[in-house]
User: What shape does this take?
Amino acid sequence: MTRALWSKTAKPGDSIYAATAFPVAGDNGMAIPPGTFAEGRIDTLAKPGWLSAHAALQLHFTKMIFANGYTVEFSGASEAVATVQLQVSKASDVLLDNGTQFEMVLQSPLTLDAEKVAGAVRSAKPLPIGAVKSATLCRPTAGTPGTSDTVIPGTPGSPGTPDTIIPGVNGMPDTVIPGIPATQGTPPTIIPGTPGTPGTVCPGPPIVLPGAVVQDVYVESFQITETVKIAGKKLPPGNYQVSWTGMLPTEQVQILKNGKVAERVPARVMALKEKSVADKTTTRRNPDGSLGLETMEFVGENFALAFD
Assistant: This one.
């Protein structure tokens, strides 16, 4: 892909723009050199939802433009098509990112001008190999922990002393020496602290899935501010994604960092009585003093993941 598709605006009929990443051979020579541009349209589009983090696109290509300007028009939508299955979060602003690779399949023979192709091969500039800058506008930010309340101790009160009574003699009345009355202390003064601010957690990048059959794939994001253990494995502070397939009571989940798998751990899928109002993680103190990641909740979802 040379131009990203945006999740909110992509729809059937939109144009797509791509370039060949690898050479295509034919008749013992290069038929389509790398760097050849392809232009097409979206035929059908199924976007991800809250309970299914995958998308499906049916594309067809209308023309190819070689490096020397040689242009080949496809006569029908059935001649060059691509079906793209994606694992992508509903929260992602990008549906197909810059540099996404997928396969275009020719449905019928393609006739090319050998002389013009040879000129295109000499002019071709292969695409650079390596990571391509993502088109996403999401930028992760770290949250702030806030400050705790400031407590200024009050002053303690005094219990006071009782009256002193000196009995009278020879019929004289008792002498009463008044005691010291009790005094009331002052309560502590509490100066409220400042609340922390949540960070921005970006969803993982869209991933092209192999094969035509796709199970429901769930992708959620979470953030931790200090090192925790999950299934005995340490996760340093940072922004992560968690991905799993299906809703069985026990699932194998992937913990991803910057789109790459950092850990694979088991988790229990728990139903919640109400949808969670925010992304939330809970921790527990392990016997060795470390923090263990206990549960994850996700905004708008009525399920959570629990880790033993």
